[in-house]
Amino acid sequence: MSCCTCYTPQEEVLQALKEGRDNPNKAAHHRLFTIAERFVGKTPYIDIERGILFTRSMKETEGQPLVLRWAKALRYIAENITVYVDDDQLIVGRCGTDKCRYGILYPELDGDFFAKVLSDVASRPDLAWRISEEEIEQVSREISPYWEGKTLHEDIVRVLPPEVKRLTYNDEAGRNPRFIAMESGTQRGGTTWCLDYDKVLNLGMEGIRKMAEEKLAALDPNNPVHQEEKRPFYEAVIITADALVHWARRHAVLARQKAAEEKDPVRRAELLQIAEHCEWVPEHPARTFREAMQSQWLAQAFSRFEHRTGGLITNGRMDQYLYPFYCRDKAAGILTDEDVMELLDCLWVNIGQFIDISITPVASAMQGGYAAWETVCIGGQDRMGHDATNELTYLILQSRKESPLVHPDLAVRIHPRTPERFLHEVAETIKIGQGFPKLTNDEEIVSHFMSRGASRADSLDYTHSGCTEIRIPNLDMNTTPPVHLNLAAVMELTLFNGHLLKYKDELLTLETGDPASFTTWEEFFSAFRTQLTYCLKSTFRIQYHMHKLRGKHFASPLASSLHDLCMKYGVDLQTSEHIPGSVDSCFFDCFGYATTVDSLSAVKKQVYEEKSISMPLLLEALRANFQGYEAVRQILMSSPTYGNNDPYADAIGLDIDTLAQTFCIEHEKELGYDMGLRMVTVTGNISHGTDVSALPNGRLAFTPVSDGSSASHGVETKGPTGILFSNHYTKNFGLSHYASRLLNIKLSPSCVKGEKGTRDLMSLIRTWCDLRLWHVQFNIINRETLINAQNNPDEYRNLIVRVAGYSAYFTDLSKAIQNDIISRTELSM
Known about the structure:
Elements: H1 9-18, H2 30-36, E1 45-47, H3 49-60, H4 66-80, E2 102-104, H5 107-117, H6 133-142, H7 144-147, H8 152-159, H9 162-165, E3 181-183, E4 193-194, H10 197-202, H11 204-217, H12 224-261, H13 265-280, H14 289-306, E5 313-314, H15 318-321, H16 323-332, H17 337-353, H18 361-366, E6 376-379, H19 391-401, E7 410-414, H20 420-431, E8 438-441, H21 442-451, H22 456-460, E9 463-465, E10 469-471, E11 483-486, H23 487-495, H24 521-553, H25 557-561, H26 564-569, E12 588-591, H27 593-609, H28 615-623, H29 630-637, H30 647-671, E13 677-679, H31 684-687, H32 719-729, E14 738-741, E15 744-747, H33 754-770, E16 775-780, H34 783-791, E17 800-802, E18 807-809, H35 815-822, E19 826-827
Parallel strand pairs: 1-2, 4-5, 6-7, 7-8, 11-12, 12-13, 13-14, 15-16, 15-19
Antiparallel strand pairs: 3-11, 8-16, 9-10, 17-18
Helix pairs in contact: 2-17, 3-4, 4-12, 8-24, 11-12, 12-13, 14-17, 19-20, 20-33, 23-24, 23-27, 24-30, 27-30
């Protein structure tokens, strides 16, 4: 390490580890570090047991209502799956093997891919998995044949019209994606979700069961809708509640067995306490903080048997629903802050060991580094609009600050009255350099949900869910994942009259004219608008089919049992119907926003205003990928760019935003739910670049497009405030048909050094809040460290970086993603 370089605390810890010294946080978190050493940096295993049990049950229940079949499958899993009580753990509940990190199979989702991909997952250069030949053979024999022809993916491929399908897939079977208008709904059983843990902790599953029994008894025996639709739903809730309780009790039995064999009296007492907890919760309301923590995890873990939910199941506002238990136990003298930290550590390692399996080509391309988003949301305001930070808020923040794990992700809600002390601690945690917490803005989000029909009190109680998504757990009903629209591809389709150079003579959209024949900027932008409208139309058609079909393939009796509206109306969460009182917010994602704005800016400036480059010359240069046209490229790259608070470029960005939001307003009602424009790319900005040739902003062919609402790499000259103001001025706040914009900002460690650096970062966050921007996250790390980690991965297994809406171990990422992070512009304040 260079003596003149300013290093982050994370980098200093890495240096200590290389020199044989311990992480300074290890002594205070001994249990966490002991368990973490068993799995951090290890290749995950695929556990096939859930997939086999789910399939066996579904074979036996054909012809029954889907929600009832799902509940019976969960019961069969609860009764038969192997249970584990891990060494050193205080909170139990695994969904699969006790070997290191692990994931489980969801054949109802992607079983049609198993035969093709499971045999090569172990040899993948990126996102490798461990699975034995015997297990692959068992999957091929017991799982794959049953699901052939039954998956949502196969259904979507069958129903999409040819003109839409060619924007989505490269082949008739739909196995290879074409990243123009790409569906993401067949990668997951639903988009991000948050259970109402408050119900689990304060009602228990016995309370949920009682509610379902009362609803069942009140049904009209002569009403066919009640008997054929609502009765199976409430019966499914009862079965699922009992299944979760049964699974918990099996852990209690195993804990008592292990206690009887345990020679260490301290561990024996811990095992007996685990048994007592699992005998009581989640069946009954939690009585203590320890029981509440165990109950929360059992519900969260069991929900993973129910679905592969995009972004996984979030933890919700932990500092709010756990706070009453914390206060009672502290007052009674039965809980210390050290106890709380140890229990949080135990929850974090449980979360960190479960890895979301990305088997399909789309999923693996979109989620590099074993991505997951089991977010913990802290801070913000309560339902009365008062600041909600409390002692538990600070403990959770401290716990994540001192943890060596990437999971769970941490989200902090910021508002204008966020306490100075809390914001200071948030800034200090960001400065660690691990990429969390990410920040969400009450000023933006509360008003957004109110514009969609939620009350102010409900809007104030939102929680972070997934990458940048927001949920109001008892009002949100939509779980249909979004379609990804590649704006950079739209730009190329405009330049080449409905064609992408990669696909040669294939007409992908419609002919809008040869740009060489256009004489004005207005003509060119009109062609772009027509191409964008065509692709938006295709996006909405994909979303329509996905939304209508999902309820025929998936059911969610557990998540539905914890949702007020589902229980009130007797409908499953996966329904495509609009439920009275719900906030059915959905969205589509735009990829390559800054790439497209900058490309349009270059065309407008250099071709039509300055006339420094002719359109025929530009098209020649693009076809040649700028080989032999470097002078042309340099002229193009001198144009105004998004991310610098430049009115010229930002006005173009605002036009795109307004056009997309207006399309949503005009056509969302036909879909049956609200639609919005979102800019969240995860790691898909890399895969979406593989279909797009060179563009007028100087980007070379098939390289990554810009991520989220961040600027194109290397163009920012106005520091972090430049990108904040560009974000603000390119959004039409008056239309309110937008969703989150993911914003990555990479800062130099030297610019946040010391107390002054902390105060400067706090001021930047206050500015972001004032500008009403949805989301921001920071990477603070030296480029030198990233390059060293890329070249010497074994020495940097513990290096954590911010990727998209999540952090990951840098060495778990593909080289393409690593390079994308390295190439992000490092800004100073």
